[in-house]
Amino acid sequence: MIRFIVSRIVQGIIVIFAVITITFALSKMVPGGGVRNERFISKEAQKAQDEYYGRDKPWIVQLGLQFKHYATLNLPESEHYKGRGVDEIIASGFPVSATVGGAALLIALVIGVPLGAYAALRPNTLEDRTSTLAATLGICAPSMVLGPLLALLFGLKLRWFNASGWFDASDWVLPAMTLGIIYSAYIARLMRGSLRETLAQEFIRTARAKGASETSVVFLHAMKLASLPVLNFLGPAAAGMLTGSFIVETIFQLPGLGQFFISAAINKDIPLTIALSTFYAALIVSFNLIVDILQAALNPRIRLQA
Known about the structure:
Blueprint: H1 2-29, H2 43-53, H3 59-72, H4 86-121, H5 126-140, H6 143-157, H7 173-199, H8 202-209, H9 214-243, H10 246-251, H11 257-266, H12 270-298, H13 300-305
């Protein structure tokens, strides 16, 4: 198991530095950036900014400086948010995104897993078709449509929650519902297909032949194996929900990481863009590592293949 975990950590570090390289290369292709976007800026000010952020050095040296920043965790300042380090910006926006994303993940699991299992246990019935239709509608409903509908119904009509902003303790509910409902549809589809496939395997028929009850067959034998595809999906899904959907945070005007990412792209804030991309990649790597460990614990064959 230790060798398995170490190999995944090494792979994750390589992925993170690859993300830094790709984001840096793409950012260098975009004209302008930082003080260059401001009007009536003198050449002396541009030169001073280029020297401060190292833009006057060859690109390979600039890339090396980026690696050094993240290897030593000595992160640079934002070009747009003057005087604020990119780590400070991430620290200010992540709690909002994490609150919404954590609640959305819980909603997705609470809705998706039972719905998919219920459909799998009643194949080709009205319940199965209804559950499948609901999951399909959830997948097809984009957040830019579902979010405003929830804000209109629960925010403006019923006035149960604020339609936008981050003012009250309940302001996480509507954006979390928007994310959670959409992701629950994917989980339900995965759970249904995986559980149906598992219930058709030989060891399930053997357990039934030995007189095991249907409850023990489903919950003690089938669910353990059927949950593996769902766990595999939860790695990047959890990272995406915890960092916040850009569209959802824009719809509900949340001060999360999504807003900073959009601002960094519009203002060509290269240090912040690289920092947010790296943070997102680190989250995906971390959650995938957790998922790999859980899968290895549930399926010993994964450990043998590591």
